[in-house]
Amino acid sequence: MDADAADRPVKRLISASLVCSGPDDLGDAVLVEDGRVVAIGQATALRSDADEVIEHAGAVIVPGFRDAHIHAVPYASLLSGCSLKSATSMNDLIDRLAAYAATLDGEHPVVATRLDDESLAERRLPTRHDLDRAVPDRPAVIYRYCGHIAVANSAALEASNIGVETADPEGGSLDRVDGMPNGILRETAAGLIAPALARGGHLEPSDLLDALHVLAGLGITSIGAMMGYGEQPSHTLEAEIDVWTSIAGDLPIKVHGITITDDPDVLTSAAGKLDDAGGRLRWHGVKRFADGSLGGHTAAMHTPFADVDTTGTYRLTEADVAIARTAAELGGAVCIHAIGDRAVSGVLDTFDVLISEGVPPERLRMEHVSVVSPDQIDRFAAMGVSACVQPAFIASESEWLFTRVGDDRSTWVYPFVSMAAAGIPLVGSSDCPVEPPHPLWGMAAAIDRHGILPSEALSGSAALDLFTTAGAMSLGEPEPLTPGAPADMVVLDRDVRSVEPDQVHDTHVIETYVDGAAVAVDRSAPAWVD
After folding, report:
1. Contact of 291 with 342, CB cutoff 8 Å
2. CA neighbor of 487 nearest in space, from 44, 17, 38
3. Residue 179 predicted with pLDDT over 90
4. Is beta strand 254-260 parallel, antiparallel or unpaired with respect to 281-289?
5. Of all residues in the chain, what percent carry a pLDDT higher than 70?
6. Cα–chain-centroid distance for residue 309?
7. What's the CA gap between 389 and 368, in Å, rounded?
8. Three-class SS of residue 329?
9. Distance CA 92, CA 121 (A)
């Protein structure tokens, strides 16, 4: 072999029974060189150009899955922490929390996640007094699974100087009994708890890397990683950025950082650090909040919820518009959380302002868009901005969703087909750890809809596109499985476009390729905890 041949990157042919993207069948093999796609077509025609061949007989190759909105650090913490999602009663919750506290050092605050009051026999949130029964001797905080409500025990409230004189912060509230906070903190009020009690707490970089390898095992090749917590001070974001940059050279998948802050200096610093870190890490944009959640009754609605006399919590302020301008000046995206229809209107108003100032619409993205009227859909589509949706919300909310929104808004919930037909670019994600990070589970929910507006069910091809090509484009990546694009792809055991939702849900990932190389994963490692 001559020197030139020895220095040339190896051409690898990766073949299966089918290569497809969205509705399109592309062949049965992908030719890869130096981490990028050289050609896609029939193996018989491409084999002569390959130095080596990897065969996945009977399998299907699709673009790598993209999760455009995931909280990776809380997910990593969940895998080794305490989840309360499957607790069935208040006593069960207290027993679980006490058992978890017993595993921690006595000086360590107790933090648990994924509380679901709808699954408790009492159908209510716990209070400080309930948590005191489980952890009487040190601070303890638990977070509702939506992430928008925290419950603190008496020790945590005292350590944070929260008492009868504590005022409700802008964009948040403390539940009270006779003026005294009862431990339930909604939206921005969760930030009153000491930073030491942040969700997930301290995390070792190795734990985060392990979690990213688990995501790769689910077929995920890129994520839009929400970095920092909206309810916590800026130094929490700065500490998380330091963790991310420390592992930049070892990332198994591509990480696009979406930073949560309203401080222009912090945003500018975070963007620079992420972009300078190299490897598969880069800064993508900023995230802000217009409201809360449907489950916690903090989604901002134009008229009250059907089951509770409140219109939720509207959080969007001029500070959010200002930080959006900073993100745009840095060349990044602006991603704003909006669940209720009032929040949707407010975000569209904000996007109107930004577009009038010259921000490209393709850099503006609304997160969630759970309740949206037909008039709002038309306005949304005319603006050219995109929507990042979470089909898995439908599965977890199906038992109480209509109870929350009422008959008048029953056709406004997660109208994916109507949004897509109007021309709104839809992007798929999990919002993990709010929902499991499995893209195939999200696809199945988009197709099935669990009895919630079946007419809005996506086809198998559209659901696949939601978590592959659409996600890639939203994160600023080239169109996947095209010549010259990074060879990020996943090998599945069936064609998920043409099977029933339960079969999509149960599809197996055989291999995940990032930049043309198979990612080493431990498939025995748990990907989810309830």
Report:
1. yes
2. 38
3. yes
4. parallel
5. 96
6. 29
7. 5
8. helix
9. 10
